[in-house]
Amino acid sequence: MPRTPIAKMSLAKVYPLLVQKAERKGRTREEVDEVTCWLTGYDADGLERQIAAGVDYETFFSEAPALNPNRALITGKVCGVDVAAIADPVEQNARYLDKLVDELARGRAMEEILRS
Known about the structure:
By secondary structure, this protein is mostly helical. It has helices at 11-23, 29-40, 44-53, 57-62, 89-105, 110-113, and strands at residues 77-78, 81-82.
C-alpha cells in the first residue's frame, strides 16, 4: 500500500492523534490548540472550521492566516528527520506542528514551546 504524502493527509484524521499524544502525558486539547494557533495564526474558531471541513495539510497551511515567523526557531528531529533540513514547506510546517506537540507532551513550559 503506497504511503500518503504528508501534504495530502487529512487534518481531521491527524489532529486527534496529536491531541491523544499530548493527553497521554497529562496535557490538554486546549494546549494543543494553543500551539497550533501560534504556529498558523488561526484562532480557535478558524482551527475548528478547518478540522470540520476535513482539509488536508496542504490546504490547512496554505490558508493559514499568518504562519509564525518564529517557527524557524523550532529545532530538533521528528521521526529521525531534522525539521530545519526539510525542503518541502508543507512537510516542514507539519513537522513543526508535530515537534511542538512533542515538546508539549514532554512537559516543556508553554513559554518555551512558543519561543517567547
